[in-house]
Amino acid sequence: MKYGGTIGITMGDPSGVGPEIICKALADLTPAQRLQTIVIGDPLFLSRANDLLKTGLEFGAAFTELAPGTIPLVEISTKSSNEVTPGTVSASGGESAYRCITRAVELCQDGSLEVMVTAPLNKAALHLAGHHYDGHTGLLTYLTGARQSFMLLTSEKLSTIHVTTHVSMKEATERVTKERVLATISAGNDHLQQMGIEHPRIAVAGLNPHCGEGGIFGKEDIEQIEPAVTSAAKKGIDVQGPIPGDTVFYRAVNGEFDLVVAQYHDQGHAPIKLLAFDTAVNVSLGIPLRRTSVDHGTAFDIAWTGQADHRNMLTAIDYARRWSAVSRK
């Protein structure tokens, strides 16, 4: 498949599996694809992963003339790199991941990158380094000055977009408002149209059991979600809901819907991870740059053992390339 544009991959937390899955994925790319893929990371850890996995990769300075097959690298190093221990939460690991992200954002903003792909970071390590964000999405929202952002998880079998993500259940319930639900529906519809689905079929999951059972189990579905669905439909969006959360994903997997709007983190993540744990892609919407990511964490328990599965990284890169290609049409 022919793609266009330059993809940037951030290394993530060096204590985790990021360097390993990046090297494994790069080894599977063609020489031409490698030249279109810039890695933003610490050469110390990328070299270690390359040696560990025997992937035989060659890295060279990005934005210079490189031999075919060489991986362009934007070097990001910290004074405390030698303090990073495999499989361990540390401020050093959090700082390294943070610097990779901030540099990638700069490269997206100046036009050097069309899409960024992120390897996993650790939220606790990020906080230890003094960067108090809820993860990549919150950090990218802040760095780009976006008013709001949305998390889309997509796979061949099922795609979901979330009204709320990394907040408590109590706060998630409070954030399920007509305005936020409508904005989430619209963001998902716009993205799927951009990716080639002319008329996306969208289902909106209910918040409460049985969508509140007429208000017996809560009124959020009646007072917030239903009006949002009505407003979206008036805009010409093909949307249904609220639909009980215990049936809507089954219906989507069986081909009735292209996208499900989930009201909270686990409502959307659980079915995706059940069906496509190794191949789902995390996509950030609502921010003024394009970003995809693996849909898993740093996997400290298997980090630096060579066991990490890189299929998720490959699908994130592939989605980034397709996103880049459609944006050029």
Overview of the structural elements:
- The structure is a single chain.
- With 329 residues, the protein is α/β, with parallel strands linked by helices.
- Helices cover 42% and strands 16% of the residues.
- It has a 12-stranded mixed β-sheet, with helices on both faces.
- Helix 8 (178-194) crosses helix 9 (220-234).
- The longest helix is centred in the first third of the chain and has 19 residues, at 91-109.
- The chain is globular and about 60 Å long.
- The protein starts with 6 loop residues before the first strand and ends with a helix.
- 51% of the residues are buried.
Task: Please tag this protein with its features.
single chain, 329 residues, alpha/beta, twelve-stranded mixed β-sheet, 12 helices, 12 strands
Concise summary:
The protein is α/β, with parallel strands linked by helices. It contains 12 helices and 12 strands.
- Main beta sheet: 12 strands, mixed
Q: Please tally the β strands and state the result.
A: 12
Count of alpha/pi helices: 12
In spatial order, strands of the major sheet run 3-4-2-1-5-12-11-6-7-10-8-9
Pattern of helices and strands? EHHEHEEHEHHEEHHEHEHEHEEH
The average pLDDT is 94
Structural Rg: 20 Å
The parts where pLDDT drops under 50 for at least 5 residues are none
Task: Report helical residue fraction.
Answer: 40-55%
> By helix and strand content, what is the structural category?
alpha/beta
Please give the alpha-carbon distance between the first and last residues: 15 Å
Broad shape = globular
| Percent in strands | 15-25%
